[in-house]
Amino acid sequence: MAIAKALTVFDIYERAKVGPKVEEKEWDFKTIPQTASRLKKKYNIKMDKKQIIPTDKELINNLFKAGLEMLVECGVYCIDTNKIIRYTEEEVWASIKAAPKRVTYGEGKQARELSCRSYTDKRPPLIQGGPTGAPCSEEHFLAIHQSYAQEPLVDTIVDGVLQTIKGHDPVPQSPWEIAAVKSEAIMVRAAQDRAGRTGMGL
């Protein structure tokens, strides 16, 4: 039996073209909820609504087992091709082992290290602030992002998206979409500069 290797973006791209075809509604309203419900029962997963992050070791292990089984069984849905990208359990483990243990966001004084943490870790988590993909007006885009960047607790920015660019709708796969994405990056960097957080991760 061949040893599984960590998958590349090229491997995944090819699988997105040849995987089994499924309608998005069937995936969203049948495949995922039915599989999740079955695995919840199989692994006896019961969440305590008063505890956001579980600390019970058996529950943590069962959540991981259920998640791994769900990924292997269901795969990942590609909305562009309406096909399922399949992975074997061996490929998932190989990718986990090959994944970096830490990564640095930002540079200089604003550099922040993101590393693996357990629920017993005493180090505080990184705080990512921002509208996180929410639509923002051209008029207020810069000020909105500056308000996040100037908060000392915020380590990195997850930016919003422009509702319009020079009054035009940034229609997907159009020149206006490209212009909007470039403008977003430029304005977020400007917002960080204004807040005195030059080099902050984005």
Automatic annotation (TrEMBL):
Output the InterPro entries linked to this UniProt entry.
MtmB_MeTrfase, MtmB_sf
Give the domain of life: Bacteria
Q: Name one Pfam family in it.
A: MtmB
Q: What is this protein called?
A: Monomethylamine methyltransferase MtmB
Q: What is the lineage of its organism?
A: Bacteria, Bacillati, Bacillota, Negativicutes, Selenomonadales
